[in-house]
TrEMBL record:
Membrane topology listed for this record: Multi-pass membrane protein
Amino acid permease/ SLC12A domain mapped to chain residues: 54-427
Gene name in the database record: puuP
UniProt-annotated location(s): Membrane
Name of the molecule in the record: Putrescine importer PuuP
Native organism: Clostridium luticellarii
GO BP of this protein: transmembrane transport
Segments traversing the membrane: 26-44, 56-75, 96-121, 133-154, 161-182, 202-221, 242-264, 284-306, 341-360, 366-388, 395-413, 419-437
Amino acid sequence: MDKQFTVSDTQNYSQQFKRVLSLKDLIIYGIAFMTPIAPAYIYGSAAESTKGMLSLSYLIAMLAMMFSAYSYGKMAAAFPVAGSTYSYTQRAINPYLGFFSGWAMFMDYVLVPLIVFMVGASYANALVPAVPYWVWVLIIAAVITAVNIVGIELAAKANNVLVLFMGIVVLVFIVFCFKAVSQGAGEGTLISIKPFFDSENFSTTLIISGAAMACFSFLGFDSITTLSEEALDPRRDIWKAAILSCFICGILFIVQAYAAQLLWPDVTTFPSSDAALFDIAKKAGGPAMATLYTVAVVISTLTAGLTGQSSASRLMFGMGRDQVLPKSFFTHLHPKFNTPVYNIMLMCSISIVGALLLPVSTVAELMNFGGLAGFMCVNLSVIVYYFFTKKEKKIFRNLVIPALGFIICFYLWIHLSHLTLKVGFIWLIVGAVYLALSTRGFKKVPPVFKGM
C-alpha cells in the first residue's frame, strides 16, 4: 500500500485536507482545467495572426509548457503543500518574491472561472436565447460553486465524466474534418506541411506571438500542484500528472488546429473569428456537428470553472495560512465538507461581477501575464533550490531543463500585448502596496517567513 503522505512530512503544517486523489484523478483534473476543446476559445484570431500556422505555434507552446510542467513536478516533490507557485518560490528563493509570484498567479486563477462564466453563458444564451446572458452567468456560477463547496472528491467525479464527453467530441470533430478533406474539401489532402510551415507567409515574430497566445490553452496544468495536500502520493504523482496532462492536451490542440486548417485553408474568411471552429464544425459535419461542438464548449466551461475556482481557493488558503493574506478569512474551512468555503464564495462573487462587465479578449490576454510570470518563478525555483541550495549538480535535470523553461516563458511573456503588460504590472504594483501596508513597510514579518 502506498504511503499516505501528510503535510508535516516536509512542513510545519497540520494536515487539513483529505487525501483522496489518485494519479488518474490528477491528470483528469489538469485536462479539465485546460479542456480538450480549448482551441475553440482562440482559434479564429490565433489562426489569422499566425497566417494559418497555428499548429506550429501550439507545438512551440507545448514544448515551452512541458519544461515548466517538469519544474512544477520537481517543486511539488520537494514541497507537497497547497499554494503551488507561491509556496515553491517562497521556500526556494525568497518569501517576498514568493508573494509576488502568488499574486501574479492569483490574477490568472481569478480570471479562469471568470472567462468560463462569460464563454459558457454566451454559448448557452445562443442555444437558448429565451434565457438572458446574465441569468446563465448566475446558473453556471451556482453549479460550479456548489460542487466545489461540497468537495474536491465530487468535483473529481464530475470532471471524469465531462472530460470524457469533451474528448469524444474533439475526436469526432477531427474525424469529420479529415473525412471532408479526403473527399475533396479544403486542401483536398490529409498530408500537408502548411499548418506548420508556409514559406509564403512564415514570420518568426508572427509564430512567437501566436505561441504566446496559444499559451492560453495550456494554462491550467499547474493547477494540479495546488492539490498536493489532497493527492494520495504527491511526490510521485504530481510531476507525472503535470507533464502527462500538458502533453495529452498539447497533442489534441495541435491535431485540432491541423485538421481545421486543412478543411478551411483561408483563415481570413471566417464569418466570425470568435466562432471560427463552429463554422468549421458545420462545414465538416453539418448543423448536428456544430450543435454538438457548441454543447462541448459549454461543458468545457463547467470543467474549467470547477478546477479554476478550486485552484484559486487553495492558492488563497496557502497564502492565508502563511498570514500574507488575512488568516481568519482565507483559511476558514467548511465544518462539514472541509473546503475553503469563504475563498470559494469570494471567487464566485469576483467572477460574476467580471463576467457582467469585462470583454472576453481582455480577460484572455491578462491570464497569460499571470500564468507566464508564475511559470518563470517556478523554473527559477528549481535551479535555486536543487542546483544551488541542495547542491544536486545534475546539470540537465536541475539546470538545463528549468533554464530553458524560464527563457522560453520569458520570451513569450515579453511578446504579450502592450495593454496586457501595462495592466499586469499595475496588478503587481497593487500587490506591492498591499504587502507594504500589511507588513508596516516590510518591518512586520509574517511568522512563516522567519528564519527563511
